[in-house]
Design a protein that fits this description.
Chain A has 25 helices and 30 strands. By secondary structure, the first copy, chain A, is of the alpha/beta class. In chain A, a hairpin with a 2-residue loop joins strand 28 and strand 29. Chain A is 38% helix and 19% strand. Chain A starts with 17 loop residues before the first helix and ends in a 6-residue tail after the last strand. At the A-B interface, helix 2, helix 5, helix 8, helix 11 and helix 14 of A face helix 2, helix 5, helix 8, helix 11 and helix 14 of B.
Chain lengths: 730, 730
């Protein structure tokens, strides 16, 4: 292969990050020999942590950098570098990228800060960077990122040295710190990345690309995302939906509060949106949301290392009542069961317990110095019983504990060393480590001892999570359960759009032509009708006589409402009259409306819809997001309870069904106090339609259906409002 | 002092735990010389961890135990032991306790298991134990506990050796593991107990006694409780209320779910009640509730070591955007502010920042190797600015990080050792540690480096919390904020009971005499009226004519309801007719009711109360608890939303006000959609009265006021049900 020639052998469908994570050669631009500079640390990681490709330092003055021959310009490199890593000041990057482009480089990581995140000047510099990259077909990560880690080929581009251990958790982060500062911390926890990617400013390759890459990566068994804002939620959703059915994805999102957004945007420059939109997005994508970096790592590691939970039954084995109780409590709250074991199994377990210990599940051995019961004897009974789908063990420990008590015992055990003292005790780690794999059962351990304990380190080194607290172990088990629920839902994908309705388009065009941004209730509902939504039967009346005639057709009782695009909030202003039983009532209501409006006004005569249950549905366009559908409690409770849920359009049938069960008050939509269960198919269709209408008509800025009254089992849209925009805000 | 004589010099008001935590002499019953037995470990802790009082091992065979002269029976002890610790098998304890009683011992810790927690036989043994104790005036801790720790006098009765460091966090636990297994773990976190008490079966001294003792203890600055069930919630509340205004108390409660309760009760034998009752109890007591043992320790340590947060403004200083964003997010969600700093302060801070870093708050230095800005320069500016009430710092580290990168640099820095290499970097720990104390400002640090880092260990050793994650630091700051809110409320104490109402007593007596356990709506409301509750105006009618006459007096519209003690759920059965506007409607409703009832029935004619807002109030007696008042959303939402809150009677005015603001839908009770704010004083008085009625009339088992309709601004009880019990269930 002529290595000086631009290499065109890249597979057509190779992911753009492949050349960044798995390059055959790397040029490092900017690293000198001063180990006290940050850039040097990155160069050292690449050189020293086991990467076996070619390394070309490029430096204007040095001939050798950390033992590698250096080159003063890309032009004289002996071969085309597959990847270039920039760790020099921002102002030099653009020019140098051009030179590397000339030399045939097609992938770059720009660690350098000083671009868009610093203001207008930096933004301009970032534009130039992208322009050069695009001219040469260079795909780049960063700028303002902290590099990547690939434990498969021992490539470490971060400034923190990396233990040589192959991990299975993939990580993509909008904060570089979570793949650098945390590395020693993760080692102590026995958690290891497969691949980790700091995306920085996401000028070119972004978080979604990283997700996509990790989704395809065979070494990666679960994916953890740290998110402050997603650039293109639609694409993110599409990519995530392809991954989550077969690989767990977890996300921590922290952009949603005022100060959070400020801190976030100053860091990544990415768009931060409100919390509940992201919440809906993650649900829709089948992504498990966590709320701390520790949970992201812990639960990610559980999902990456443990087999699926085949059912909901969890066994808990402990040497202490408190942790067992805490684990059971959390499992129960999260929808798992901690079933009492059969008498038969309890009898078998009791053979291994002191007389006062509990065998029912949680099994509490109470504290003693031998580990065998906790590590093998009872786990074996539980795993082979068929009475549990997952196991948690708390308190398994040996050397950690023995070291702790050794100072008190040292003079009593003569000259015996700590090691010899420890050897007095049983060791069955080999069997213990085999058991769960043989039984294909997830195992999560909780221990207050870290890697100073031989059981903790042995389990961790064999890809069993050992977490530092019972509640954390239990939340890990819940993550397995939640993934089971999420993967089923995400598998279905988005729904299909119906064709655009010509009559609806006409109503919108007419409103725009007449300068109306707000559609009146009647027009709003006609649009909804075009897409099959169940709206109250109604007609417009311009005189009391017309109103009476319509009421006669619809049959009493009816509702009269003033109808004008100038009215958005009608209640309480004398413009709405409900439950009218006869002609006299209609006549009086009509004149009331005219009086309240202070002028002649069209009056909508609708059939009165009765129902105790009210919900609302709507659509908003949040900056940076496509149309989002909202569903919530209706009537006066909408505002007071904020019991609502969001999804991005288009909604799948599963998305719509999930929205309905998301409500805290969802029990109200089941068979409830003598009322029938709501027709969820029909309600779900309303939610899907609201999203579809927004996609088919970009000029619609907002839709508000409130209330949708549940009449018997059927949802009926009783009031509706559609607001138009310029179609460009979003 | 004649030491052989029973000592009567105990102060009259000395707490019974004082002699257990601070004894001048200890007899250890049951420890031999075999270091492989658990009991030996406890004896060794007492002997080796620095306790300076007299120690008398008592053992049937040994003459010397671990170097201390041993005695074969209490009878031959050279002096009265103030405290006896039992670590021998349960069956020997009772007899030996008697002998120690003879010898003058008045305090005991019974570590031994095998009592009530094992079943009827053990229960009998525990009774005997108590009988002997009471005969000799012995107060005892346990049985089935793991001992106590007092770092003030270096007394350690647990089986785990203890570092000699005086702590400030008091702990009382219903699981012994949390003051034993966790000791090495806590040392690694730099968290140290003042005193710790494992209460075991609570046969005599219980968790509330431990709380009371720790409340009085001057060394203890905050109290952490691990709870599986409280024996006497009323006394617990009374004791906690006295403590929380001046000393923070935190609790983890995990007894509330089915499996949790099973595990818990098998361990402590204590009563476990439903979660929401404990939730209310803690709120009422001014106790902060946490949901994991880690939070209990972390937040306890923050509250024990940091000065109060004087306001809501938090400053965040970090070397990385992600952790800063995460901290800000959690602070905002929890009601703290992360205010943007003034331009003036930002200018000053910017002098210490790289050009692309953010000074607005969070201040993000971005990563670099020198610590000065993070440890002193910027903290000083922030603390002296008056623009923040508390500070969080993430990422302060030196030797931990330098050790991490040293392997990459070792050969580049020649023969320089790790230590010398570290000495190249600035060290300003002394100044850094002084700053917060000088400024009386709470400081919480977050670091991914443990005690291997010199900054982490220095801060920890100087009583600043260094927690292993930004979210944990932020939750610590929230705990300071929540304590500020809680202490104000708890300070007020319970409300006073009004006198018993003779007419109400009469109604109840008549119902009992006639064998009715369910009071009809009219009688129920009359009782409520006796205590000043606002009920709908109404009278009973036995004929349609009477009903019409009453309706005329009350003025239309009215409501007619069948009224009988046989009816508890009336809606939907044709027995309720609302909004009746005229005589004809009343007449027709009356006959409808007679028809629906299938017989003549008294009919309640009430004035129609209108209001869009409905709430409910009630009272239940849960086993082990006194009467509890419940408040929630009314109407169909009561069940669907489970938006309710509990408190133990009697309620203070603050308790009642808190219940109202507890509701997720509380916004609905403010000025809301054109409706006035609810009269909270009147609503609160209803809640207080419901609790008072239950206390004044023990025969009332349940009260249910649903709905209470908000008419204008006034709550009116529209339906009510009182159920009587035998007065003994509770």
């Amino acid at each position: 292969m002529d290595d000086n020639h631009i290499n065109n052998d890249e597979a057509v469908d190779e992911h753009p990050l492949e050349g960044i994570m798995n390059p055959r050669s790397i040029a490092i631009a900017g690293a000198g020999n001063n180990p006290m500079k940050m850039g040097a640390l990155q160069a050292l990681s690449i050189i020293k942590d086991g990467y076996r490709g070619k390394i070309y330092p490029v430096h204007p003055e040095e001939n050798v950098v950390f033992g590698c021959k250096a080159y003063y310009t890309p032009k004289i490199l002996p071969a085309r570098p597959e990847l270039v890593i920039f760790i020099l000041p921002a102002k030099h990057v653009v020019k140098l990228l051009e030179e590397f482009g000339e030399r045939g480089a097609r992938r770059a990581i720009v660690i350098s800060a000083g671009f868009r995140e610093t203001g207008p000047e930096g933004e301009e510099l970032e534009k130039q960077l992208l322009e050069v990259a695009s001219r040469y077909g260079i795909r780049l990560l960063g700028p303002n990122c902290l590099g990547v880690i690939n434990t498969e080929n021992s490539l470490n581009v971060t400034f923190v040295p990396l233990e040589d251990r192959v991990g299975v958790l993939g990580m993509a982060s909008q904060s570089g710190t979570y793949i650098t500062q945390t590395l020693p911390y993760l080692q102590k926890k026995g958690i290891h990345f497969s691949k980790a990617i700091s995306v920085g400013n996401e000028a070119d390759l972004d978080l979604t690309d990283a997700l996509e890459y990790l989704g395809k990566d065979r070494q990666t068994r679960a994916i953890a995302l740290y998110i402050e804002g997603i650039k293109n939620p639609d694409r993110f959703l599409e990519v995530a939906r392809r991954i989550t059915p077969h690989k767990p994805v977890l996300a921590q999102y922290v952009g949603g509060s005022a100060a959070g957004a400020r801190a976030g945007s100053s860091h990544t420059g990415a768009m931060a949106g409100p919390d509940h939109l992201y919440d809906g997005l993650f649900k829709q994508a089948g992504i498990l949301r966590v709320h701390s970096i520790e949970d992201l790592y812990h639960q990610g590691w559980v999902l990456a290392t443990q087999p699926p939970l085949k059912g909901k039954r969890v066994a808990i084995l402990t040497n202490s009542g408190g942790p067992g109780t805490a684990m059971a409590h959390i499992c129960n709250e999260g929808g798992l069961e901690v079933p009492r074991f059969s008498e038969k199994l309890q009898e078998k377990i009791k053979e291994h317990l002191p007389p006062y210990a509990s065998a029912g599940n949680p099994v509490d051995l109470t504290f003693h110095l031998e580990t065998k019961e906790l590590s093998t004897a009872i786990p074996k009974l539980i795993m082979e019983s068929g009475e549990a789908d997952g196991l948690m063990i708390h308190g398994l420990m040996k050397t950690g504990f023995l070291k702790t008590i050794y100072p008190h015992l040292a003079d009593l055990v003569g000259n015996e060393s700590e090691e010899k003292f420890a050897a007095r005790f049983n060791d069955d780690k080999e069997e213990a480590l085999k058991l769960p794999r043989e039984n294909k059962m997830p195992l999560i351990l909780s221990s207050f001892f870290g890697r100073e304990d031989d059981y903790t380190s042995a389990y961790q080194d064999n890809y069993y999570p050992v977490l530092d607290g019972p509640e954390k172990a239990a939340r890990g088990m819940l993550a397995l359960h939640q993934y089971n629920l999420a993967r089923k839902k995400a598998a279905l994908g988005p729904g299909e759009l119906p064709p655009q309705s010509a009559p609806a388009t006409k109503i919108i065009r007419e409103a725009l032509d007449s300068g109306n941004r707000v559609l009146d209730e009647y027009s709003s509902k006609r649009i909804l009708s075009c897409y099959g939504l169940p709206v109250s039967e109604e007609e417009l009346a311009y005189t009391a006589e017309e109103a009476i005639e319509i009421a006669g057709k619809l049959r009493y009782p009816v509702v009269l409402k003033g109808c004008s695009s100038e009215l958005t909030h009608k209640t309480g202003s004398g413009l709405v009259h409900i439950n009218l039983e006869n002609e006299a009532a209609v006549r009086s209501a009509f004149s009331e409306i005219t009086r309240a409006a202070g002028k002649d006004m069209a009056v909508l005569v609708s059939k009165m819809i009765k129902g105790e249950r009210e919900v609302m549905a709507g659509m908003i366009r949040y900056p940076g997001f496509g149309p989002s559908v909202v569903f919530g409690l209706g009537g006066i409770y909408t505002e007071a309870l904020k019991d609502s849920t969001f999804r991005l359009a288009p909604l799948s049938r599963t998305d719509a069904a999930d929205m309905i069960s998301d409500l805290r008050a969802s029990a109200m939509l089941e068979k409830f106090r003598g009322m029938p269960a709501v027709d969820k198919k029909s309600l779900g269709a309303i939610l899907q339609a609201v999203g579809n209408i927004a996609l088919l008509h970009p000029r619609i800025a907002e839709i508000d259906l409130n209330p949708v009254i549940i009449s018997g089992k059927d949802p009926v849209v009783v009031d509706a409002l559609i607001i138009l925009g310029n179609g460009k805000d979003h």
